[in-house]
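User: I'm designing a mutation panel for TATA box-binding protein-like 1 and want to avoid disrupting the core. Could you give me a predicted structure to guide residue selection? Please restate the sequence first so the numbering is unambiguous.

Assistant: Good idea. Sequence first, for numbering, then the predicted structure tokens:
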Amino acid sequence: MATLIQENGIKELSKATHGVVTNHGMSRSHGIASHMVPDHEYCEPSKPQEMPQQCMEAGDATAPHPTPAEEEEETPEIDIMINNVVCSFSVKCHLNLRQIALNGVNVEFRRENGMVTMKLRRPYTTASIWSSGRVTCTGATSEEQAKIAARRYARALQKLGFQTRFRNFRVVNVLGTCRMPFGIRIIAFSKKYKEADYEPELHPGVTYKLYNPKATLKIFSTGGVTITARSVSDVQSAVERIFPLVYEFRKPRSAA
């Protein structure tokens, strides 16, 4: 490594004492004894041509490097929190909602909506069940968790006597939130981009729509951003797309 070269190579060469024998009972001022082999014959000849390379490596070792604070400022890390994953699936059979309401656990029959709601504790989710066999599940915090919950709902319906089959599972909506490391001048931002819609009388944030990936973002002056997209990967891509746009309108975050 460059550090070792600097310590064991260049410092020794600068003293010009390599290859000199000093432990034979005579000082350096008496010259070379007749029974001793001269230094230039005893030691390997020095290689001055290697000096520039060693110096260059030593110079690289002492070159200034960016501090961790500078690197963090150039590439900030933004944590995205997934608050809700909505999925839907079908059990491919007709469901008797009255039977589910009477025999099911954690069930509520909503006659005005023509559906039954069922809740799970693990994972903590809520399912909306229709007589056609269509089921919508909300409350999961990941796509994997949403699929686990959907299968448990299908199994619960099967235990109630229905010939259920787990089909057509898909994630239909994902809600995520993040916080930029700075405040945002949302008025100036909304004036520059036509995709931005700002109605302060209706909502305190700017509504910004992306088309690739397809996502809707709510941007607030505090730096908070709410993202709605079709998948978790689209939420992440939306944050990566919006960051350079809002960075131009950054401002110091106001104290809470």
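For picking mutation sites, this is relevant: Helices lie at 2-15, 39-42, 51-61, 68-74, 97-103, 143-159, 186-192, 232-247. The first strand starts at residue 80 and ends at 90.
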